[in-house]
Amino acid sequence: MSKEHRPLMMRANRLLGAALVEHNLVKIENLETANEKLIEIVATDQPRQCTILGLLAYDMKVLKEDELLHHLVESEGVGLVDLRDYDVPEEARKNLDLGACWATWSVPFDREEEFHFVATAYYLSPAVRAYWEKQLGGPILWFGTTLEGIADYLEKHSNDPANAPKPAAPATPVPAAVK
Questions:
Q1: Are 99 and 93 in contact (CB under 8 A)?
Q2: Residue 109: helix, strand or coil by DSSP?
Q3: pTM
Q4: Would you say 12 and 128 are in contact if contact means Cβ atoms under 8 Å apart?
Q5: Residue 151: C-alpha distances to residues 68, 120, 144 (Å)
Q6: What is the mean pLDDT of each run of 10 residues along the chain (179 residues)?
Q7: Which residue blocks in 43-109 are alpha helix, DSSP H?
Q8: Do residues 93 and 107 lie in contact, with contact meaning Cβ atoms separated by under 8 Å?
Q9: End-to-end CA distance of the chain
Q10: Phi and psi for 147 in degrees, rounded to 5?
């Protein structure tokens, strides 16, 4: 993860963890243990592993991702989306900031008129919502999704040859000045 996105990733994880405790989805002791593990993982520079939610749900098994999604639907009024079954328009894919998506576990995946559609596994993190609201500059319709859904989409997107960095154009020779 780039140094540019690391503070966002840390803030997103910290505030998600606090919200999970606040909503009684995890215990503070479990969050503290997960935070210690997260610090170790961040040093390895593996974006797919840098997730407090992943540590709590899949490593420590103290939270089920399905329970979090149920909470989002029931308590927060957030819809759900599976990006594997969604035909993401090229417009939404072409300027995707992969670093910001990994840092926030979120993907802007469509736009209808002035509304942006964002899929996220981190809806409960105020840092994530504030970041995307600022970046997109318009109203957002939020959709909950799984960590796996976000990771698979981002890895597929980053491996798509159409999204590879373009090689620099060769320097155009400057014609010699006419005397």
A1: no
A2: strand
A3: 0.85
A4: yes
A5: 17, 11, 14
A6: 86 97 98 95 84 97 97 97 85 85 96 94 98 94 96 84 44 41
A7: 52-54, 65-71, 90-94, 98-104
A8: no
A9: 53
A10: -60, -45
